[in-house]
Fold methylmalonate-semialdehyde dehydrogenase (CoA acylating).
Amino acid sequence: MTTQVQLFIDGEFVHSKSEKLIPVTNPATQEVIAQVPCATADEMAQAIASAKLAFQSWKETPVSERARLMMRFAVLLKEHQADIADIICRELGKTVEDAKGDVWRGIEVVEQAANIPSLMMGETVENVARSIDTYSYIQPLGVCAGITPFNFPAMIPLWMFPMAIACGNTFVLKPSEQDPMTVNRIAELFAEAGAPKGVLQVVHGGKEQVDVLLHHPDIKAISFVGSVNVGQYIYKTGTDNLKRVQAFAGAKNHMVIMPDANKQQVVNALVGASVGAAGQRCMAISVAVFVGSAAEWIPEVAAAIGKVRPGVYTDPNAAYGPQISPQARARVLSLIAKGKEEGATCLLDGSGVVVDGYPNGNWVGPTVFSNVTTDMTIYKEEIFGPVLTTMTVDSLDAAIGVVNASPYGNGTSIFTASGHAARKYQHEIEVGQVGINIPIPVPLPFFSFTGWKGSFYGDQHAYGKQAVRFYTETKTITARWFDDEVQASGPNMS
Ligand code: NAD
């Protein structure tokens, strides 16, 4: 019998009564490794009610105690980084190093959450009027919820609940049904770190369970990371229900390559940034825009990308793993076919790649297109596979024009030796995270993850100071204390 993934409600791992189960598969073999239940309406209600009750005492827990919980949690996550990574490898197929990185980037957010006392400082001004002071406090909202995607099953849940809980909120997390086991292990460690019961709840399922969170009056804020269509739905439905929402969505990230860049650095950067993690990264570089004579390097880039191969996580030579599901693979393959049909030049075609001994894996080999134009489907759609599309323009202005016309704005980078070109690019580009000779510029957690345009709906972003603003309210107090010895004057009618 396959294991059923448990729910984490009111401080206990519980077996769901749901009859609706979704298989969790090893994407390298299709072996069913667990069944994830879609939490029943009662179980959803219990999770939210327990989080609501826990909020009453958690919000009164001193900020220094909340910080210490995060310190203990970070230590446990570090101790168990390898075993969490092993779960990621089995349910998502990432390489071991990549899976460890997934956990590590989450740990960095927990370390940041341990700084919560200084992050929650308000503002003060003395003598705003004679003998009157104004000061502000930051207070938690209540029960917050998180809905996360499959591609970073450790990092993205850890973007959310540690910051929310450190701020004094309680949290209901609905991880991806495609790789739900990673979060259960993380929740177990959070409890072991001393999290009081009810502070974190983990419910499993899909749209139906998300809809409960979106409509429930006791959920005050929703954090979402996932695809564009779902992100728009979450943002519209959540705000329609008068909730605070931050929704991080899909992306199409461009790297601009100037002819004065260091060729070898460009080639090395493009290999990892385009096909690493099987292209299943919201910050992957999926479009390389070569300016002028830099276009001569395209064949060399394709040759370097052609040297990497997908494989199973137990193979130390595998550069990346499978796509998450047969459907995801079929979608990537159909987009590759569409690219050829619409006239792009396929310099490297990974459609037929197989991995010895794993005939049923969701493999897609590295793929590179040139002569891509902005009207092609492979340019317009997020492929979310190991596919690099390349295009050529004749000036930096033209490259900036292409990037700024994209509806997405998650990340971008420029490779150049010119400070002037880099400065112009960082200033004029309408994208929220910019790398200069850095292909994937994901900010560390003392900054925030600041996607723009169609890659983000909301205003306050994930982690850093913006997360504290998202998960809190500001209370501003204006105070006067009378001197008992001075006689009160008459009423002030002004
Ligand atoms: P997805 O949108 O299919 O699923 C995300 C979450 O939403 C899951 O928990 C899922 O159960 C839930 N969901 C799915 N359909 C739903 C519906 N109709 N109504 C309500 N909830 C629904 O995304 P995915 O395939 O798991 O993840 C890949 C996507 O996530 C890519 O588009 C990628 O770019 C994006 N992503 C974005 C960022 C970012 O920071 N911008 C980071 C990581 C991933």
